[in-house]
Design goal:
- The chain has about 180 residues and is mostly beta strands.
- Helices cover about 0% and strands about 55% of the residues.
- The protein is built from no helices and 13 strands.
- The strands form three sheets. Strands 4, 6, 9, 10 and 13 form a five-stranded antiparallel beta sheet that branches. Strands 5, 7, 8, 11 and 12 form a five-stranded antiparallel beta sheet that branches. Strands 1-2-3 form a three-stranded antiparallel beta sheet, with no helix packed on it.
- A hairpin with a 6-residue loop joins β1 and β2.
- The model has no long low-confidence stretch (mean pLDDT about 85).
């Protein structure tokens, strides 16, 4: 197959398929598909990423940032990166992630995970969160809070116990896989 380069938009009425071919059997394996309705269907090995930006609350309490989780996706990981340094009087800074405002259905409240009785969070500080997955092996397992069958809003919440001197800037990095 030829390699073709386009300088303008490409239009297809039947969608797009990226595939690999087995050299021995000749069988094709689709590894990336965009359906004719625009739905992106990817291999489970392909991880998509979303980013949302937030700051500390101007006083104490919650600073909520919203992220739109696409339909038919499973959240694989959520991390927080301090992009601009934050400073508070001695106190705690933490996080939680939920399907409701100030909820903790996806990442449990970790009130002092970013700062525990300190004053400064430097730019470049990076935190991995622990995802909650309530699905268990039993007679009536619960649906996982990580899966969205329809597009939904995820609430990413940074909490602080003291008024900030500098609110800083935090990037939420959400990795998810799309399932067909």
């Amino acid at each position: 197959m030829a390699l073709t380069t386009f300088s303008g938009p490409v239009r297809s009425l039947g969608g797009f398929i990226g595939a690999t071919q087995n050299e021995t059997t000749g069988a094709f394996t689709n590894n990336f598909v965009i359906n004719e309705d625009g739905t992106v269907v990817t291999s489970p090995a392909i991880v998509l990423q979303g980013v949302a930006t937030g700051t500390l609350s101007a006083t104490t309490g919650d600073s909520i940032t919203q992220f739109s989780q696409p339909a038919n996706t499973v959240i694989k990981s959520i991390s927080v990166l301090c992009v601009t340094a934050a400073e508070v009087a001695t106190g705690d800074i933490g996080f939680e992630v939920g399907t409701s405002s100030s909820g903790a259905q996806i990442v449990a409240t970790a009130a002092d995970e970013i700062l525990d009785g300190g004053t400064d969070v430097p730019a470049g500080a990076y935190y991995n969160t622990t995802l909650l997955n309530t699905t268990a092996s039993d007679a009536a397992p619960a649906a996982s809070p990580l899966y969205a069958s329809a597009a939904r809003t995820i609430y990413l919440n940074i909490t602080n116990t003291t008024t900030p001197v500098s609110r800083g800037s935090f990037k939420w990095i959400i990795e998810y896989s799309q399932v067909a």
